[in-house]
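Q: Here's a chain of 391 amino acids. Please give me its 3D structure as tokens.
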Amino acid sequence: MTITPVMPTYGRVDVMFERGEGAWLYAKDGRRFLDFGGGVAVNALGHAHPHLVAALQAQAAKLWHCSNLYRVEGQEKLAERLVANTFADTVFFCNSGAEAMECSIKIARRYHQAQGRKEKYRVITARGAFHGRTLATIAAGGQEKHLDGFAPKVDGFDQVAFGNLNELRAAITPQTAAIVVEPVQGEGGIVPATVDYLKGLRTVADEFGLLLIFDEVQTGMGRTGALFAHQSAGVTPDVMAAAKGLGGGFPVGACLATEAAAKYMTPGSHGSTFGGNPLAMAAANAVADVMLADGFMAQVNKASEHLWSLLHPLVKKHPKVFAEVRGKGLMIGLKCVAPNTDIINRAFDNGLLTVSAGDNVMRLLPPLIVTPEESEAAVAILDRSAGEIAA
């Protein structure tokens, strides 16, 4: 047998981590790494956060799973908190960002079709987007590298240029049901939407009677300096997908919606066996305890300002390696001149974990609790790594 017991769908780096603490990860071979990948924006509060550990341990001793056939106290608590702090009136809990996006797409179709508009099922998305790995969400993202080998492409998605409202308007047909956009494209290369673009999306959606869906799976839960990225722009969607940082490392997804958008999601219209189980809700409520505390987001913005102040001189110092720094808050992309994999691998060798993205970008996604000293240490590693590559 040549295939490995773990299906080889990842190009894994040869390292195995056994424990973490804050922004640091410790490998079984004794090496220590500063984690600026964060499990791809998942470990928003770092590793082994004491409040999250205590909450999960306490819940684990009481109840793990009881099915959504019954009320779940943690769901009701978290839903009330999310509703109180967002545009939403209601929340569906699932296990991942892809599931949250599937729910969002289903809401859009049902919203129109339950009102007799059976022809409305198509969704306009942006080129360069990433919305998950299911058959529907790779079709929504539209990237050939994700679609390759999985034909036929699921019908119902039309891609337009990110940031181009004219192209968006031209793509709307009588079959269009919704618009889906990431406020900052993550996998696509850390490309932030402008405030005018986000406001324009809301205007177009209202004009044509479409639902506006924001994919905040990566941008949400404080990653850009607000609880959700769209809040900084003063724009509200009808539906929003969240996950990643929501559970702080525990698999949790959520689809948030207004009452108007979700009122046709009646019993039997959607479901999840594991979604919102007591363990997941204990983790997510613990994350919310920290993130909703007074002063937390101010501290995130202070941390991001410090890190950006270090990265701008770094890029200027190494023009043969880095072209620019872009992003928002602690969702940062270093556009590379050299192949991004070269600098990512060199940084790994020097003790820093980062993540690749499209457009030859290196992603920096440190925990929101990153200290100034840790940011300085990370940039020092990038400086050393860039110098080695340039040499």
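Q: Can you summarize the key feature?
A: The chain has 14 helices and 17 strands.
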